[in-house]
């Protein structure tokens, strides 16, 4: 496996304009993420953790500084290149699950592979074992509204990891789950990290997430104030 950092930032900044006021969401952030990490960005609302996650996910653009993902400078990517990089190299798990309502659990789970142009049989060979692995083998034909929040989030996990991305970005993945479902989800992601080498970066203020993270990066007012390995 490559020892090259998946994420490297240098003096990364993001400024938003709210009327005549400039909001400095990130201020000179220096941060690296290596393969196999199970790390969390922590901090209160407005600390900059979701902004940093969005920049790493190529969902937003930095105002200043530099960001390198998987060895590629993001500033040198045009919009199409950034979209393709996001599709091929980044997995996403969102607070609101973001499943397609009219698709089955299986169809949602294979959706990224479908967008990548992977053949139908190959998609099935990849997705079915993963659905079995996360305990959804008997629910593959169900629509999202027929599933619990924890089950929907497990579908989102399979969708995120099926294409073997460089990193999975999880933005408050436990926020809409009860305690039991949240613990089960975190245990699943720990196992995927340790057994299948999936790299995870969370943005969360959930203590349950921070307790299991192997590294916690604390942000406050757009700046990293601590970076601790557990």
Would you mind describing this structure in some detail?
The protein has eight helices and ten strands. By secondary structure, it is of the alpha/beta class. The protein has a single domain (36-61, 79-229), classed as Rossmann fold (3-Layer(aba) Sandwich), CATH 3.40.50. The strands form two sheets. It has a six-stranded mixed beta sheet with strand order 6-7-8-3-9-10, sandwiched between helices. A four-stranded antiparallel beta sheet has the order 2-1-4-5, covered by helices on one side. β4 (64-69) and β5 form a beta hairpin. It is globular, with a radius of gyration of 17 Å.
Please give a quick description of this structure.
The chain is of the alpha/beta class and 230 residues long. 35% of the residues lie in helices and 28% in strands. It has helices at residues 49-56, 79-89, 105-109, 111-115, 120-133, 149-161, 179-196, 207-212; strands at 7-18, 21-33, 38-42, 64-69, 72-73, 90-94, 167-171, 200-203, 215-220, 223-229.
Topology:
Layout: E1 7-18, E2 21-33, E3 38-42, H1 49-56, E4 64-69, E5 72-73, H2 79-89, E6 90-94, H3 105-109, H4 111-115, H5 120-133, H6 149-161, E7 167-171, H7 179-196, E8 200-203, H8 207-212, E9 215-220, E10 223-229
Parallel strand pairs: 3-8, 3-9, 6-7, 7-8
Antiparallel strand pairs: 1-2, 1-4, 4-5, 9-10
Helix pairs in contact: 6-7
Mind telling me which CATH architecture this is?
3-Layer(aba) Sandwich
State the distance separating the first and last CA atoms: 23 Å
- What's the main sheet like? 6 strands, mixed
Order of helices and strands: EEEHEEHEHHHHEHEHEE
Q: Using only CA atoms, what is the Rg?
A: 17 Å
User: How many separate helices?
Assistant: 8
The count of domains is 1
CATH superfamily: P-loop containing nucleotide triphosphate hydrolases
CATH topology: Rossmann fold
Low-confidence stretches: none
